[in-house]
Every structure is written in structure tokens, then in C-alpha cells.
Input
Amino acid sequence: MKKVDNAGVRCQVSGVGQGSPAIGSHQLLSIAIAALLVAPLHAQQDGAPELTAEASKAIDKGLKFLLTVQKKDGSWDSDGKGGHAVAITSLSLMAFMSKAHFPGFGPYAEPLDRGMKWMLKEAKQRPDGYLGSVMYEHGLATLALSEMWGMARDPKDDDAIQKALEKAVEVILRSQNPGGGWRYQPQADGGEDTSCTMTVFHALASARQAGILVPNETISKVVKYITNARHPDTGGFTYNPSGSRGKVTIPCTAGGAYIAQLAGQRDTEMVKGALRYLKSQSPGIITGNAGYYYYAHYYAIQAMVQAGDEEYAEWYPVIRDALIRRQDTNGGWSKGSRLGGASYSTPMAIIILATPHRYIPIYQR
Output
């Protein structure tokens, strides 16, 4: 079940049957979007003083940069030749949504509508429901579809999003490994790693919040995986579920903490230990460098949001100012990017900076 609340932000309720239709979303959507379009000013002035004028300017510059690299067919990619287009298009759409810009509405209505329709065309061409070339892409696509569901102007597009989302979730559910994780391909016997698992389960948690049925057993197996990937001495998470034998990484620790929170482990020592480890590495991993910098901080800021106001208030201003300093003059982010260049790191930077807005339900506490 999905609805739009009186502030215009889509609320989501988990625990209902798979494929439950949005109740009243099409009738209320125009009013909702109108409210969202004026909400950023209210958020900055009243509820989010940490969202500085410089941060808002950086976000807007970043969005304009993304428009300059969007392809005519509506997609974004990593190399101008279609590289990882499913992943980059999904992230780009999420970046615009993080500032309350949705397909078919507002100043970016047309390019976002083209991006959405490109995603739906891709989904229609994939009868098996698998989107992209690796499960990373599939996870990001599932996440974007989930967060767009109920927000399209045309009810037919919304129905198409629902169908694509249901199929995408089916792929995730059937490809979970016995250890609880996922790896590069949708195979239940294909192995597992923390990085892929956190990307995929992030999407699954969003779909569950949106009303797609996700079995409790699936979530329990994810908790099992994360427990096995935890390094007992440091509190961080390793790339493989090898515990004390593995090497702790910042991205896996950030993402591991976040998906553990989404899996119901918010107040456990497992999560608290991971947060302590991240803070012990700060501010170096923020003002300096962390492996896969934007990917790591994309998850780290959400883990801090879930941890509570105190943790978030300490973390966000530092990463906010660091990202503002890293922004290129053209509005993109390329410094320190290792995956897909500015087309990949820019939407992630925007999503991090836009955290105070809380327009995307999965990023709310």
C-alpha cells in the first residue's frame, strides 16, 4: 500500500501483499508534487539548517551537469557508449528525486520523463526481470523503480513501473545464496560478497517499504550474512563473509551497517560497532580519501541518518563541506572517482548532499 501524506511526501507501509496498488496516489499526485516543489525552501529555513546555501547551489549545479550528459534516448551512461546505462540512469533519476524533481513534473519534467521511459523500455525488453549486466545494476534499477512507483504523471507508466518492480524483486529473491548474500549474477549458487549484497538488499528493503512482499526468511538470511562478514576485533565489515580472516573496508562497513539497520538490527552491537569504526577513521576518510569514496559515503551518510540525530549532526556537515570542495567547475564530481567517472560519482554526491530534504522514503529514518 502506498499513499501521499499531507506534506506531499510519499509514505510507504510494509507488510501488504505483493503488487498492492497505490491508493489514491493518482488523484493526489498533482497536489503532492506542487507541495514538494516549494518544500526545499521550507526545509532549509526551518527543519534543516544544516542544508547551507552553498550545498543547495552545489546540488543545483550538479543536476544541471547531469542534464548535459544525458543521452537523447533519455539514458545516462558511464562512457558515452552505453556503459552501465541501467545503473547510471537509475542513480541519475534518484539524484533528481532527492531534490523533489519527478518525471513529468516541474522544470525537469521532460528529461526525467525520458529517463523513466528509457528504464521502462529496458524492463519491457527483459521478460526475465533482470536489469543490467550485473547484480549491482539490477539492485540500483530496482531501487529507482521502487522509489518512482506512485510518482509518475501517467497512470499507465505507474502500472508499468509496478510490473517491472515486481519482476525485479522476483529476480532478487530467487538468486539469494544459502549464506544470505548475492554476487555478480542472479544465481543462487553464484557466491556472495558484502558489496553486492548491500546494493541488492538496499533495493529489496525499499521495495518492501513500498508494499512488495519480501519474506521474513529472506531478511533473516541477510542478517546471517552480515553477522558472518563482521570483523569481531574492529567492528567493521569485510568484503567476504570471512569474519576475522577478511580485510575490513570502509564501503563494506558503511553499507553493512546500513543494511543491518534496514534489516531490523538498528540498536545491536553489530551496528554500533560498525559506526564506531567509521567514526574512528574520520575525518580522514571524509576530508581525505576512502576507497571508492562516493560509493562509501553514499552508504555512510544513510547509516548515520538511521543511527539518530546525534550521529547524523556530527557526520553530515563534514561530508557536506568536503563534497562542496570536491565539485568540478562544470558542476560534476570527478575527483577521486573510480567507477564510471563523473557520470557515476555526480548523482551519488547529489544524493549525499540532499540528505536533509528526506524526499526519498528509503532515506528517511
